[in-house]
UniProtKB/TrEMBL annotation:
DUF2157 domain segment(s): 13-147
Spans traversing the lipid bilayer: 37-61, 67-87, 99-118, 130-154, 166-186, 192-211, 216-232, 244-262, 274-291, 311-335, 347-367, 373-390
Source domain of life: Bacteria
Protein name: DUF2157 domain-containing protein
Keywords, alphabetical: Membrane, Transmembrane, Transmembrane helix
Native source species: Hymenobacter segetis
Any one Pfam family match given in the protein's UniProt record, by short name: DUF2157
Amino acid sequence: MSRKFLDIESPGWVTDGLISEAQRQQLLARYPQQAPALGLLPILGSVLVGLSGLSVVAANWQGLPAALRLALLLGSLVGSYAAGSYFLRRGNPDLGHGLIGLGLILFGASIILTSQLYQLVGYDASGLLAWVIAGGALSYVYGSRLLVLLTVLIGAAVQTYCVESLGIFSYVTAWLVVGGMGYYWWRRPDTVSATVLAVGLLWQAGLFIIVQHSKITWFFVPAMLIYAAGDWQPNRAGGRALQVPSLVAAYLFMFGLAIFGEADAYANILRPPLLPYLGALAAVLAVSVAGKRARGRLATLPEWLLLLPGFYLSGGLSLAVATLVVLYAHAGSVLARANRDHDPEQLTIGAVLFVAATAVAYFKLTWGFMDKSLFFLLGGVLLLALSWYLRRRNAQVLAAAAPPVAQQAGTPPLPAAASEASEPTPNS
């Protein structure tokens, strides 16, 4: 909650009797005014001056003596770290971490330029591994989400270079990201860091599948292993943030299968050997279920519906119907869980998923033989009914939550006689 929001809204809360003036002052004291950060214009000016200097150096790089080039690289690297430490000591973590991150980028650039300067030709990623190690170390030392993001991106870039240029998969790079950043996330389950880490790990998994020339559906074994790790995380928000990218990938795959899979044109790239694939997926499912049971999250088990291997079915109507049933079942599970938990955000997501499944169903199953006006009529009625239901449910949730909120805000509870008089009679 921001202080600006409280300054604007809290007087109205006092007027409406939601809180008292004393409680308003307590809220304001709880969220004090933030110290003014360093002005944006000086930062932008410094960046432009730095870019100007870099442009001059880049334009004349080849003509500079080797000793001067090396001095420029070391000077910019040390200068970035020193400036970052200075601003951190002055209480400006955003700018400080930004400069530390710039130093990390310059460290990688120095490795590459030094190799070119002394014509050190390498056929492995051993030099770039130091870049990943440095990023992981800085992330632990400073505890910065920016540095975590940069380290994951650096790991992805190094792995991409290995796959594209060297034709190999660097297991060391993968384990540095999985082990180093994974342990960081486990100890500090920040939602932003979890999402960035999950995306980076999915990228690593995708590159591994490419190098192994495996069926692309093998991608979902490591993807759901990432999801299962989120089930074991004690912090619910941090674990959920790690799971979302894997769920998005699984949903998009099932959605694409519902649209394009009926022609059976993708069998050669979608169908791995049945028993090994199902065995690996079942093992990951067991890990996930154990984590859900340990953390009390078995209600999210229907999310595994998206991993049902419907691509083993032959193309045509059977595959289209099977994938649509899965999409509807998944959307229904999201709506049911949102209603139970009174979660408006999940209600919105469930409604969107339901509408998406309905659109695919109409266009795939009814467009060819149903009159177009009837198609739009049924679709509109269905969406209006869903909208009415969600609004009604939301009103019930708000009505149920209103009395406790009012009592917590200092409003005295109604007497028993008054509350009974306020209740409508069955004939009213």
